[in-house]
Amino acid sequence: FELVPSDHPPIVEAVPTTDFTASGNEDENEDENENPSDTDIIVGCGVAGLIIGGPCLALITALGGNWAKKKQGPFGESTRAIGRITHAAGNKAKDEKF
What we know:
Elements: H1 26-34, H2 38-53, H3 55-68, H4 74-95
Helix pairs in contact: 2-3, 2-4
């Protein structure tokens, strides 16, 4: 195979716009989701560890996630992201009445 230049214009990435007219609670939800609770982080990291390596790794990742939640950088951000995902999944389960 050979890479050949194209005469087509480059593809431009679309940037989604945010519609704040739906409700006025977006700021409250963003603040709540920026710092997930300890329970969200521990459960999310523990489930990830359980899936990857079993109960021993689940315990280690749950405690490690609780330790890493206040750290700066990619490690702390990924831990908080797991907490936000767990929080969203818990809210969805409450909405569906599981």
